[in-house]
Amino acid sequence: MPKAKTHSGLKKRIKITGTGKIKRGHAYTGHLKTNKTHKQNKNLSKSALVHSTDEKRINQLIANMK
Questions:
Q1: pTM of model > 0.85
Q2: Is 42 in contact with 23 (CB distance < 8 Å)?
């Protein structure tokens, strides 16, 4: 069986923390920021953790990153 390859698009979008959790950015930050409130833009700029129910699926895509 061939080796699993890391998903190239995903490895640019996430980081792995020291404890092994997966950090991600928020969506809806590309443009049209003037329509959003200051509070909304501030909270969207912060990073977030991937939900535990999605971790198994994402770990299969980034098998070689760890």
A1: no
A2: no
